[in-house]
């Protein structure tokens, strides 16, 4: 089974990388571009689990390793 | 309008960061975890465009700045 975990910064957390991309897009001449926020995505292959169990394990992986839950949100999607 | 651009490494391109995460998850005791691939996600606010035009502009942004199309694929989603 394949899963996709998306980790994004929480609202209100500064995102200098996103700001730099905003500046880059403006410099390239793209008008009407508002805020840009950058996040991470993890494509993970899992075996020997039900979808239910996979979801629980992925949440634990996020809490322990994939996301910094002080400043980041995560979303789990079984593909 | 909001859009999400997901940039992932093409198949066959080495992903040392993904490998490190695989090792980390194994070290934390998660069994049955196969390949892990890491990518990037960009949440972009756009204004003054139709969905069609936004999609075209986002593709151009990916080609010019957001993705290295030699080694990366990108997917555009209007939210």
UniProtKB/TrEMBL annotation, chains A, B:
EC number(s) stated in the UniProt entry for this protein: 6.3.5.3
Domain of life the protein comes from: Bacteria
HAMAP family: PurS
Subunit: Part of the FGAM synthase complex composed of 1 PurL, 1 PurQ and 2 PurS subunits.
GO molecular function: ATP binding; phosphoribosylformylglycinamidine synthase activity
Stated name of the protein: Phosphoribosylformylglycinamidine synthase subunit PurS
Job of this protein: Part of the phosphoribosylformylglycinamidine synthase complex involved in the purines biosynthetic pathway. Catalyzes the ATP-dependent conversion of formylglycinamide ribonucleotide (FGAR) and glutamine to yield formylglycinamidine ribonucleotide (FGAM) and glutamate. The FGAM synthase complex is composed of three subunits. PurQ produces an ammonia molecule by converting glutamine to glutamate. PurL transfers the ammonia molecule to FGAR to form FGAM in an ATP-dependent manner.
Keywords: ATP-binding, Cytoplasm, Ligase, Nucleotide-binding, Purine biosynthesis
Cell compartments where the protein resides: Cytoplasm
Presence of the UniProt keyword S-adenosyl-L-methionine in the record: no
Pathway: Purine metabolism; IMP biosynthesis via de novo pathway; 5-amino-1-(5-phospho-D-ribosyl)imidazole from N(2)-formyl-N(1)-(5-phospho-D-ribosyl)glycinamide: step 1/2
GO biological process, one term: 'de novo' IMP biosynthetic process
GO cellular component, one term: cytoplasm
Stored InterPro entries: PurS, PurS-like_sf
Protein family according to the UniProt entry: Belongs to the PurS family.
Catalytic activity: N(2)-formyl-N(1)-(5-phospho-beta-D-ribosyl)glycinamide + L-glutamine + ATP + H2O = 2-formamido-N(1)-(5-O-phospho-beta-D-ribosyl)acetamidine + L-glutamate + ADP + phosphate + H(+)
NCBIfam families: phosphoribosylformylglycinamidine synthase subunit PurS (TIGR00302), PRK05974.1 (NF004630)
């Amino acid at each position: 089974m394949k899963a996709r975990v998306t980790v994004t910064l929480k609202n209100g957390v500064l995102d200098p990388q996103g700001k730099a991309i905003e500046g880059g897009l403006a410099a390239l001449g793209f008008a009407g571009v508002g805020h840009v926020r950058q996040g991470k995505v993890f494509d993970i292959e899992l075996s020997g689990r039900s979808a239910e169990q996979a979801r629980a394990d992925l949440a634990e992986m996020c809490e322990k390793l994939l996301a910094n839950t002080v400043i980041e949100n995560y979303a789990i999607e079984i593909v």
